[in-house]
Structure formats: structure tokens, C-alpha cells
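Colleagues,

For the teaching module next term, I've prepared a clean inverse folding example: a structure given as C-alpha cells, and then the sequence designed for it. I'd like students to try predicting residues themselves before seeing the answer, so please don't circulate the second half yet.
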């Protein structure tokens, strides 16, 4: 049932584009560090080429993914079919945090809808692409995107977001450095 792919082909890229939610998992090097798994939604993932994906990283209550990727690069993105035929896809790779001061930030962020809460783009060089059946994944009815985060970010404004990130996103819950304040 499970299959490993050489790369993200056109058919798989089209399937990825249709998914409305995906999950990102990372872990620190420390044995006692906290493993992180975060849900992501909206129109926030792109297949850049057959071995590279990127997703929009929005301001949140923590910055675990950023801290872990900066420390060791390890990341997995998992997508599940909640509609249509069953399938789960995992993209294992090495991540890179692209913040506004990075030379690639503008060209990458331009590929996504504008979002006031954008703090980075996570670019992943995919080393392993696999799919599995997803027989146990339930059907879920899509009702629409939530606009809570966008409204919150707009209310905060640029200066408020900068202060929030400085206070809440400078390090992980394990004390690893996360966001610089650029």
C-alpha cells in the first residue's frame, strides 16, 4: 500500500495543491526536548520544484518549527485527503527559515496570498516522498477558511506584531533561539 516516490511529480503536486490542511512536525536534538506538530491551513503551501516545497509561516503563539529547523533542519510535512479518494502523503526533508531579511523572501512570499501575519516562509528540500492509504482518515466537510488570525494580525499592526514576535517568538518552549527580530 505505501509507496515511496523519487520526487514530487505533476500528479502529486496537483493533489498537494488541493489539500486544505497539512501538518508540520519537527523535533529538537535534545532527548528531553518537546516534539512539535502544527496544523497549517489556507492557501499556504507551494510545490516549487520536484524536490522543494515551501509554506507560509504565520505569527503564532510559539515558534517551535522555526527553532527546530534552525537548530537541525529536520522536518516532515504530512497531508491527508479528507475529501475524495483516500491518501496520506509525507514529505521528509531539510528545512530553511526564510525571514524578511533573506534575499529570497520577497520572491517566495509573492507566491502566496497576502497575509498580515506572515513572519517567514519555510522552504523544504525534500529528501523522501511517500504516500500511504489513509483508509482510517475520516471524511471532513470543508466549510471555509477562518479569518481570526488575519484579523488579529491586522489589529496588531506592523509595530504590534514586531513586539509580539519579540516577546513570544524569540525562543522555543525548550529555550532554543527562534526568530531574530528583522
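(Answer key — instructors only)
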Amino acid at each position: 500500500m505505501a509507496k515511496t516516490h523519487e520526487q514530487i511529480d505533476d500528479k502529486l503536486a496537483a493533489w498537494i495543491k488541493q489539500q486544505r490542511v497539512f501538518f508540520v512536525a519537527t523535533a529538537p536534538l535534545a532527548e528531553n526536548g518537546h516534539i512539535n506538530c502544527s496544523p497549517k491551513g489556507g492557501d499556504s503551501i507551494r510545490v516549487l520544484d520536484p524536490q522543494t516545497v515551501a509554506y507560509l509561516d504565520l505569527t503564532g503563539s510559539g515558534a517551535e518549527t522555526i527553532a527546530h529547523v534552525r537548530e537541525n533542519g529536520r522536518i516532515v510535512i504530512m497531508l491527508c485527503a479528507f475529501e475524495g479518494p483516500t491518501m496520506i502523503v509525507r514529505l521528509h526533508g531539510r528545512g530553511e527559515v526564510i525571514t524578511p531579511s533573506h534575499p529570497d523572501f520577497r520572491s517566495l512570499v509573492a507566491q502566496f496570498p497576502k497575509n498580515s501575519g506572515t513572519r517567514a516562509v519555510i522552504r523544504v528540500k525534500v529528501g523522501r516522498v511517500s504516500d500511504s492509504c489513509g483508509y482510517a482518515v475520516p471524511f471532513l466537510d470543508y466549510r471555509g477558511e477562518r479569518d481570526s488570525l488575519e484579523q488579529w494580525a491586522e489589529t496588531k499592526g506592523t509595530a504590534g506584531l514586531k513586539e509580539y514576535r519579540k516577546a513570544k517568538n524569540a525562543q522555543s518552549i525548550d529555550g532554543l533561539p527562534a526568530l531574530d527580530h528583522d
